Amino acid sequence: MVAQTFSQEFGYRLGRSVKRAARGYLRYERKAAVWLADQGVPFVLTTPLLWGIKLALLGALLYVAFWLAMLAAFAIAVVWAAPYIDWDDDEQPEWRMGLAGYGLYQGEVRIDPYDPDDEDTIF
């Protein structure tokens, strides 16, 4: 009879890692509470101080998560918009009649050097 092999999936490993991290944090929190008690800080002040540390860590985590989410949203927007962008922006100049008269135009802008007063002069 063959023994069944157990493969640990990603979610299982992630859960164990989070559990290990939480245990480690609680261990350091207890050490900090004992250290504060040894320093003479009353228990009434120790509890709010430790909760303040927890809230500060949560705030830092949410701050980092917000900016990572913004970065991901920006990357998704760029990937979504990339097919619609006209990457071939090199319109060839052409001679034609435009808003500023006959001349060399690139798009709607006349690019050849001209003097508008020269058009009115008679030779």
Molecular structure report:
The chain is mainly alpha-helical. Helices cover 55% and strands 11% of the residues. The protein contains 2 helices and 3 strands. The chain has helices at 10-38, 43-81, and strands spanning 94-98, 101-106, 109-110. It has a 3-stranded antiparallel β-sheet, with no helix packed on it. A hairpin with a 2-residue loop joins strand 2 (101-106) and strand 3 (109-110). Helix 1 runs antiparallel to helix 2 (43-81). It is elongated, with a radius of gyration of 35 Å. The chain starts with 9 loop residues before the first helix and ends in a 13-residue tail after the last strand. The mean pLDDT is 86.
Short recap of the structure:
By secondary structure, the chain is mainly alpha-helical. The protein is 55% helix and 11% strand.
